Amino acid sequence: MVNSLLHRASFHLLPGRCLLCLAHTLAAADICTGCHDELPWLGPHCQRCALPLGSASRHGQCGQCLKSPPQFDECAAVWEYGYPIDQLISRFKYQRRQLYGSLLSRLALDRIRAASRPDLLAPVPMHWRRRLQRGFNQADIIARVWSPLLGIPVSTDLYRLHYNPPQQGLSAKQRRHNLQAAFALRKNADIAGKHVAIIDDVVTTAATANSVAAILREAGARRVSVWCLARTP
Ligand SMILES: [Zn+2]
Ligand SMILES: [Zn+2]
């Protein structure tokens, strides 16, 4: 059911109306051109972790990345995590509106396509208990929309070892502690020599992406990217 919905050619959440301002849309679009242009598209940002920067820094990277480079090679983010993307993502995750996830993934596609092409998409795994509570893993939904449109397979070899409390509202230190040894890779995973893109909805401290990237590197990944919908400032 979910799959058939995800793979439909278009997602008319409000047929003929813009999802954000309710204006009539003529084209087969869920968002009108005006609202589309006003989305918080990511501006100047760190070339390594995509952290929004007020102006392009001299080195192209943020202070944190220069001081202690992350485990991944680059991060492609589409939006800054602000209105109305934050609300759309929150409806997607917490109100089980998977169609919002499909819509966002499709809107993000042009920018994601511009990033260097990986061999595999690896959605950040969710513990089965959390998945049961939420009903789906948002990173999976995004990867399953992008995979057929980009012709890149999804890897399901990553999994989460522990059931951790939600990361929301935790300090960076608490997050790091939670994430220690949180992920693992199945035995027969074929990662060696591959360029893998970790898929997530929002990158906040990059701690999750770092933990997953470390596992992929250990397994011999040639290059690790992070692809996300939004990056928090
Ligand atoms: Zn609109
Ligand atoms: Zn950075």
Key descriptive features of the protein:
single chain; 233 residues; alpha/beta; Rossmann fold; four-stranded parallel beta sheet; 35% helix; 15% strand; binds zinc ion
Name given to the CATH architecture of the largest domain: 3-Layer(aba) Sandwich
- Helicity level, as a percent range? 25-40%
Find the structural class using helix and strand composition: alpha/beta
Reported by name, the CATH topology of the largest domain is Rossmann fold
* Biggest sheet features: 4 strands, parallel
Across the major sheet, the strand order is 1-6-5-2
Rg measurement, Å? 17 Å
Strand content: 15-25%
Overall 3D form: globular
Mean pLDDT: 87
First-residue to last-residue Cα separation = 36 Å
- The domain tally reads 2
What's the CATH C level of the largest domain?
Alpha Beta
Describe this structure in words.
The structure is a single chain. It is built from nine helices and six strands. The radius of gyration is 17 Å and the shape is globular. The relative contact order is 0.17. It starts with a helix and ends with a strand. The strands form two sheets. A four-stranded parallel sheet has the order 1-6-5-2, sandwiched between helices. Strands 3-4 form a two-stranded antiparallel sheet. It is an alpha/beta fold. Helices cover 35% and strands 15% of the residues. The protein folds into two domains: 9-38, no CATH class; 41-231, Rossmann fold (3-Layer(aba) Sandwich), CATH 3.40.50. The structure holds zinc ion (2 copies). One zinc ion (ZN) is lined by residues 46, 48-49, 51, 61-62, 64-65. One zinc ion binds next to helix 2.
